Amino acid sequence: MALKSFIEVHPDSHFPIQNLPYGVFKPQPGSSPRPGVAIGDYVLDLSEIASAALFNGPLLNNSDCFHQPNLNKFVSLGRPAWKEARATLQKLLSATEPTLRDNATLREKSLVPMSRVELLLPVQIGDYTDFFSSLHHTKNCGLIFRGPQNPVLENWYHLPVAYHGRASSVVISGTDIVRPRGQAHPTPGSPPYFGPSRKLDFELEMATIVGPGNDLGKPVDINNAADHIFGVVLMNDWSARDIQAWEYIPLGPFLGKNFGTTISPWIVTLEALEPFACEAPKQDPPPLPYLTEKVSKNYDVSLEVHIKPAEHEKPSVVTRSNLKHLYWTLTQQLAHHTINGCNLRPGDLLGTGTISGPEQESRGCLLELTWNGQNTLSLNGVDRKFLEDGDEVTFTGYCKGDGYTIGFGKCSGRIIPSAP
Ligand SMILES: O=C(O)/C=C/C(=O)CC(=O)CC(=O)O
Ligand SMILES: [Ca+2]
Ligand SMILES: [Mg+2]
Questions:
Q1: Residue 79 is part of a domain; what is its CATH number?
Q2: Helix (H) or strand (E) holding 335
Q3: pTM exceeds 0.80 for this model
Q4: Where along the chain is Ca(2+) bound (predicted)?
């Protein structure tokens, strides 16, 4: 029989006992941030569970990792500690275990309705990198930005291409995004202009949260890379296409991308995703030995993007994709990032790159969906080429299990007008 919690969880809820994603929250506006896990419509306060001495396994019984304002310390402990925490929490929340179920005082202290809490960034992000790992997205961007001659450059099939993003502007879901201003150069031969971006876009991505890091000069072996991945979140790499197209040669994305990046609040662990592992796409040509894994896997995570214009009550779906379309795997991305000796640190954020699927309806950004504004998308009667002020963009992601759903919650942000 499937594992069940004493807490009522709707079958469509993203947060059954099989999930238990980690986040950081404030139970009340004045209280200090602390780690929690999502269970149904509640957040379980891990600082209270630790104070009650219920993390009683050998690795966590004396740890202060749940008395921290972020999850960096916990994620740095590595897989044995994560497994111990998950076993403790699944037992504590199960329908047959009386410890928490029958202790009204502890329940009152430790279970907070999710509707009441403020969710914060789950980790302090030291560094943020963004990959470029969907072949469909790469082909489409190549056609749009560089033309039909050679849309996918030769290096792409041999290494997971990436750029260093900016950690300071990574924000939690629900944070408004100010339309960036910058230079653009729409007409070749005439001078550039300066102003609010006219081609503001979202990018549908997920991102790895790094667990234990590696020492400077000591690369992570591809076959151990999964031990450095704590879990995964949804990520929106907001992109100003007009600024990007003018500035990016030859050093890559800069001000067209670093004005804001939104992540979802709940980190879904690789343990919870394991039942949804699937074979990664076949790589041809085969990668070099340092990128060749014994088992090459992706995860079957359904993804959706919704846009709600200010004047609409309800959002419209604009794309449906899936993490399983990614060409380079999360573990290949991580191993490649360290192969030159670069050190990753706990809490680092590694974006997957835009996750476009093979169909037109599974394209992961407006640049592709409207072909750089040549076509128009109809959102229930309202036309869009790029994002307008007041638009709210929401990503969701989930895996459908037998009688339960492992979900990522929401990653959303609303565009507000740029400064005058
Ligand atoms: O092809 C380009 O020049 C640029 C592509 C992107 O903007 C994509 C990027 O940020 C990486 C990704 O999300 O896949
Ligand atoms: Ca991106
Ligand atoms: Mg960005």
A1: 2.30.30.230
A2: helix 330-338
A3: yes
A4: 130, 203, 205, 237
Question: Does the structure show a pLDDT above 70 at 283?
Answer: yes
Q: Which domain holds residue 56?
A: 22-120
47 lines ligand 1 (CB under 6 A): no
Which residues carry out catalysis?
A: 137
Claim to verify: residue 146 and residue 86 sit in the same structural domain: no
Question: Which residues are annotated as part of the binding site for Ca(2+)?
Answer: 130, 203, 205, 237
Query: Which of 54, 88, 120 corresponds to the end of one domain?
Result: 120
> Does 133 share its domain with 114?
no
Interface predicted TM-score of the whole assembly (ipTM), two decimals? 0.94
Q: How many CB atoms lie within 10 A of CB 179?
A: 20
- CATH number, domain of 308, equals 3.90.850.10
Q: Is 325 in the pocket of ligand 1 (CB under 6 A)?
A: no
| Neighbouring residues of the ion ligand 3, judged by CB less than 5 Å | 237-238, 257, 261
Q: What is the mean pLDDT of residues 352-366?
A: 98
How many structural domains are present in the chain? 2
Q: DSSP H helical segments within 45-134, as ranges?
A: 46-51, 72-76, 79-93, 98-101, 104-110
**CA–centroid distance, residue 325 to ligand 1 (Å):** 16
Rounded to whole angstroms, the Cα distance separating 280 from 277 reads: 9
> For the chain, what is the radius of gyration of the CA atoms?
22
Which of these three, 120, 142, 168, is where a domain ends? 120
Which ligand has the nearest atom to the CA of 262? 3
Quick check: 42 and 111 in contact, CB under 8 A? yes
Ligand nearest to the CA of 355: 1
**Residue 399 in domain:** yes
Quick check: 392 pLDDT over 70?
yes
